[in-house]
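Practice set, problem 2.
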Amino acid sequence: MLDRLHKKPWIGLLGIGLGFLTQPLGHTVYTLIDKGFGDLYYLGAAGMAVVGTLLVWQGLKRAELPATLFGMLGGWFMWIGFFEFTFKFYAGLYSVPGYAVEPGVPNGYVAAPSANMLQATMPLMFALFILYGMFNLQTKCNFMRWFHRNLGFSPGMPTPDNHRSFARITAMEVLFVTWFCYLFWLYMIYFGTQQTGMNIIMSVYLAWTAWSLYLVWRAAKQIRAAAALRYGIGAGIVLWGAAEMPSHFGAYPEYWLHPFDYPVFNLIVGAIFVAGLVVIARPPVPAHKRGAGGGTLASGKAAA
């Protein structure tokens, strides 16, 4: 049964499922640290940042699949520790208001102070996107290569045999895709509260959902665990936007933000995530290696 999960289309769907689940669980972890540490939340945040950094470091010299797993978990922890709690800390330090009210708009635009801090990072994210994405000679990212092809701009093909640091690449993907999706929806909500009302948000939401379903279809075509996981991380985070946005309009509660009120939901989600990690980390051993101490990719290290 487990061997079958490492075949098309299941391995791709497993990869996108893990990427998807990092988002609600990330909110849950954030809430647990925020409530559990109270005014000392920055200590919990620092711990997450350090652990995330060490996970990526540990993945740098490992084989492709374990490096991808370490990079995903490390990037996920680093986002919570370095990004989310940093926005909260400086929003409190500088008394950033939680409301940005536009004249003539009855309800204005409502957001947490940390979200307002996050919106201010848009130029920084865009600049890094250009330098590390658009101008990256070595990128093999399908998203980046699509831009290169369709804009008539190509920095050239990746250097043959260039060693790829899968842990670092995966961690960067987690950070940038999460960052982009946060900013995108914050700005869409902001402009959606202006004179054009909900028309903008609903149109964008339908397009986003169509894109998400396309990514699910593409993910189902993956045939290798490591590649499926790297593709699934970005695709799953995008898919999360399609699932989460209705909760902002009152379609259902945001269970992931209230783990103490909905413990069963969050425990089930956490258990599914851990089970998925275990399955994807233990690919089937090829028949010719069985009984020869071949082990699994998840325990291997990259050759020197």
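Problem 2, part (b): a different protein.
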Amino acid sequence: MRKIVLDTETTGLDPKKGHRIIEIAAIELEGRKVSKRHFHHYLDPEREVDEEAARVHGFTWEMLKGRAKFADIANSFLEFVDGAELMAHNAPFDMSFINNELRLLGLPPLQNPVVDTLKLAREMHPGKKNGLDALCNRYEIDNTHRSLHGALLDTELLAEVYFAMSRGQESLLDDEVPAMTRQSAVLKTDAQRAVLRILLPDAAELLAHEQLLLDIDKASKGACLWKQNVA
């Protein structure tokens, strides 16, 4: 059976409260490597993004307006995952959002078999942190480029984590199979990440900041670390 690693980013935590998908990504595994087939889209959620969610993935509704809606990509997504075993970290979260989007379109929920890698990790490492970053650190997978959550990047990292977690299974098949025979996921996509707005301070804000540092420096008798670093 084909295996597909998928991930979503959303406007919030609960589809029952009207939250929607803003990014969806899926990459296909080919044995012990990632194939060149992948699916990825940023989406207009047609609603505001919760501040807490925006801090996690960096997106606001303003940045996503005008992008494709889930209805526009639903058929191509269903075609991509058809007949595949799906794999996600905290799979109930992603599946609840995907099935909610399908429900809004009058479509039935996915019937694919689903593997929750978070559940697998907790069984393998009870009592330890098993978030994606923690697993990357445990298996020495480079995740330094993951400053914000992103569905496409996270599917690549999760594929690496899955290969590492299931590495021992190879000995059951062939002792001569090398432990790591995979490729990095292909991260080229037409769905370009929205440009983050950078808000620079105006003259009044810079002046107020400088005065604050002077006040701190005066109150601490010259021990203001920010002033020392600037100097």
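Answer key, part (b): The radius of gyration is 22 Å. Confidence is low (pLDDT under 50) at residues 169-197.
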